[in-house]
Amino acid sequence: MAIILDLDVKRLNRFQGSANRSSMAYLPNSKKCFVCGEENPAGLHVRFFVEDGLVKARWRPQAQHCGLANVVHGGVTATLLDECMAWAAGRSFGRMCVTGELNVRFLRRVPGDQELLVCAEVVRPGRRIAHVQGRLVDATGEACAESYGRFVPVSTEETLAVDEALLYRDGDERPFAALRAKPAPGADG
Q1: DSSP readout, 20-69?
Q2: Overall pTM surpassing 0.85 (yes/no)
Q3: Mean pLDDT throughout 130-149?
Q4: Neighbouring-strand partners of residue 105
Q5: Cα separation values, 8 from 72, 82, 149, Å
Q6: How far apart are CA 99 and CA 37, in angstroms?
Q7: pLDDT of residue 183
Q8: Is residue 185 left, alpha or beta, with left meaning phi > 0 and alpha meaning psi from -120 to 50?
Q9: Considering the chain, what is the average pLDDT of its residues?
């Protein structure tokens, strides 16, 4: 299947972000996740946030993230896009999601010596699958990679178990809070 990328470049390529920081909210991290795990010594230590309806993250690669000298490894690039798109899908469903399909188009080498921006948004929500697109840009705003994926929500129980292990700070968005507000099955209201 060909990658469907009709990206809204103006929307996804806003590297500097909006001047109105009140429209920005961070998402939680975990302890051990390879991408966002704060205690994972081999991890990327990424902090995702939501700004203007897009899930985003700024990240500065280190030498160990590069394959060739000063070129971020393609697998690391794909991983960043996958995680960012999964958060976009998770926000859309209100449940954690797993990747059903991931396509990445590498447009140019990803520089390893500057801050990068990864962003994603759901382009076609569904009842059982969310279609999500992503983009990774360099510090000048030039696109290095684009992605398309299909994401499937996990059960409410699995989402709540993962949510229990997430690290929330004051002001963080709580994308799964609605699941906790629902009465237990069979409970009288």
Answers
A1: -GGGEEEPPBBSS-TTTBTT-TTS----EEEETTEEEEEE---GGGBSST
A2: yes
A3: 98
A4: 146
A5: 25, 19, 16
A6: 19
A7: 64
A8: beta
A9: 89
Which candidate, 154, 71, 143, 61, places its Cα nearest to that of 110? Answer: 71
Q: Which single residue is written with the structure tokens 């299947």?
A: 1
Q: In sequence order, which residues have a C-beta less than 8 Å from that of residue 76 and are 6 or more positions away?
A: 44, 61, 65
Strand partners, 71: 111
Portion of the chain with pLDDT greater than 70, in percent: 84
- CA-to-CA distance for 50 and 52, rounded, in angstroms? 7
Residue whose C-alpha is closest to residue 62's, from 73, 47, 48, 74? 73
Domains in the chain and their CATH numbers? 21-172 (3.10.129.10)
pLDDT, position 189: 46
Whose CA is closest to 123, among 73, 79, 78, 89?
A: 89
Q: Between the CA of residue 99 and those of 46, 83, 96, 103, 131, what are the distances in Å?
A: 19, 9, 10, 11, 10
pLDDT for 14 equals: 46
Spatial contact of 53 and 11, defined as CB atoms under 8 Å apart: no
